[in-house]
């Protein structure tokens, strides 16, 4: 009787506890599975984030490389344009200087011819013939103003770094600076529609600019006529040296 009662109790325990243990085991398996799935999702998220950051970094690097290439290309194109402008300015100034020199040579030749004609006279001899007096020696050629063009672009940059260098304006400035040098005084050209600054600077040293610098000459013009620095979009400059004095003109247009 006691044995049967013990077996009955044992059966009850097994019937009640076994399902509970099974449920606990199943619940534990679910927890482990959920933790694993969460960890996997976190890894996938971190991987996706890292891949996204890598793609963004590569895109940024590519964009910076493209910007650098574009900047270098623009700098080369600007340097080429400035070289072309400078070459055109030098050519224009040389042509203007050659023209003015030709005019001076023609004036000297005309003066020499006039002196020769007025100085010719006849001397009577016993036979009634005359012989011309010897022609006077030609007058020495006067010293000519020297047009300096190699600093034009640097001077314009010192006047207004945002303005475009204008070779036609520079040729006009050089011609007027030469007129001032020959006249020995400064005066404006009187050309309408242009802002103009004129100057006379005694030489303080040697070199093409007689000891002055492009920055000083540009600063003089910018301080003398502020519109050259603040309003003009195209600027030209002319520099001439004559008998130890530097003559300079700057002109600008809107």
Key features?
five-stranded mixed beta sheet, Pathogenesis-related Protein p14a, rod-shaped, two-stranded antiparallel sheet, alpha+beta, 254 residues
Short description:
The chain has 254 residues and is of the alpha+beta class.
Tell me the series of helices and strands, N- to C-terminal.
HEEEHEHEHHEE
Tell me which CATH architecture of the domain at 86-117 and 142-253 applies here.
3-Layer(aba) Sandwich
Q: Structural class of the helix and strand makeup?
A: alpha+beta
Q: What share of residues are in beta strands? A: 5-15%
Oligomer state equals single chain
Shape: rod-shaped
Could you say what the CATH topology of the domain at 86-117 and 142-253 is called?
Pathogenesis-related Protein p14a
Average pLDDT, to the nearest integer?
79
Highest CATH level, the class of the domain at 86-117 and 142-253: Alpha Beta
Give the end-to-end Cα distance, rounded to a whole number of Å.
Answer: 125 Å
Number of strands: 7
Explain the layout of strands and helices:
Blueprint: H1 2-119, E1 122-124, E2 130-132, E3 146-148, H2 152-159, E4 164-165, H3 167-183, E5 195-202, H4 214-224, H5 227-230, E6 234-242, E7 245-253
Parallel strand pairs: 4-6
Antiparallel strand pairs: 1-2, 3-6, 5-7, 6-7
């Amino acid at each position: 009787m006691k044995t049967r009662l013990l077996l009955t109790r044992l059966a009850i325990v097994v019937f009640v506890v076994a399902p509970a243990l099974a449920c606990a085991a199943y619940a534990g398996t679910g927890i482990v599975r959920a933790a694993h799935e969460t960890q996997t999702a976190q890894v996938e998220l971190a991987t996706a984030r890292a891949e996204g950051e890598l793609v963004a970094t590569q895109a940024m690097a590519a964009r910076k490389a493209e910007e650098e290439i574009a900047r270098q290309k623009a700098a080369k194109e600007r340097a080429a344009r400035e070289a072309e402008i400078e070459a055109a300015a030098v050519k224009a100034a040389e042509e203007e200087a050659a023209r003015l020199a030709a005019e001076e040579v023609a004036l000297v030749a005309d003066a020499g011819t006039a002196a020769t004609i007025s100085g010719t006279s006849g001397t009577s001899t016993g036979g009634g013939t005359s012989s011309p007096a010897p022609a006077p020696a030609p007058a020495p050629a006067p010293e000519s103003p020297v047009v300096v063009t190699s600093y034009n672009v640097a001077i314009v940059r010192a006047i207004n770094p945002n303005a475009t260098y204008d070779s036609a304006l520079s040729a006009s400035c050089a011609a007027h600076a030469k007129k001032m040098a020959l006249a020995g005084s400064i005066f404006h050209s009187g050309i309408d529609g242009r802002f103009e600054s004129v100057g006379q600077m005694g030489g303080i040293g040697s070199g093409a600019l007689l000891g002055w610098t492009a920055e000083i000459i540009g600063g003089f013009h910018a301080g003398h006529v502020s519109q050259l620095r603040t309003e003009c979009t195209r600027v030209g400059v002319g520099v001439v040296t004559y008998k130890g004095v530097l003559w300079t003109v700057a002109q600008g247009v809107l």
